[in-house]
Description:
Layout: E1 3-12, E2 15-24, E3 31-37, H1 45-56, E4 60-63, H2 76-88, H3 90-105, E5 110-120, H4 122-132, E6 139-143, E7 161-167, H5 175-187, E8 192-197, E9 210-211, E10 216-217, H6 220-239
Parallel strand pairs: 3-4, 3-5, 5-6, 6-7, 7-8
Antiparallel strand pairs: 1-2, 2-4, 9-10
Amino acid sequence: MALQTRLLDYRDGALRCAGYLAWDDECSGPRPAVAIAHTWAGRSEFECDKARRLAALGYIGFALDMYGEGRQGGSPEANAELMQPLMNDRAALQRRIGAAITALQALPEVDAQRIAAIGYCFGGLCVLDLARTGADIRGVASFHGLFDPPGNTAGNPITAKVLCLHGYDDPMARPEALVKLGAELTEAGADWQIHAYGHTLHAFTRPGANDPERGIRYDARADRRSWRTLEDFLEEIFGA
């Protein structure tokens, strides 16, 4: 394997966004691609590492940029300042992630008919919103994501398969939110799965996360299990 990476500039209207591509250049021809939506902190090494891991599996990994110009927060206050405008305007959020998918589909090395998106925390909400818009992609996977419906997609059919990987004790999306999400996805006709990990808090995939008072803690077992589930999910949605 010869892993390659580069930055990919694309636009959402006038805003320049800076994504990160990873691929194995020993693979030939168009291949499936997986977009990765970042946490509230902005595109970081965490998401870029996921892109490289996906490239090692034979996909094109694309760590997208929801904030533009590659901006990152660096503190809870700065993260919230970047995230909140998109939380307040979910249509803008949906356009932003849609622009990333359009840019990815346009690459000659990408099989535009085999695209998926995964996201972490805030990014989990982003990919769920992408599915809620009826986007023509194979599937989305949310890792310890947020489930609040956007209010502008009711009645839309969801054609993408949906996978949610979630800590049962996550205070940011409690068990009742899982039930509501399942009802929403059923109403939209989605093919969906929700995997809840017992005794598991928010940010369970992020090594170093350790603030149980705020409901945040890394869990190596849930991290390992969720990634294996993702691998199975990708094999399923890209196999047809």
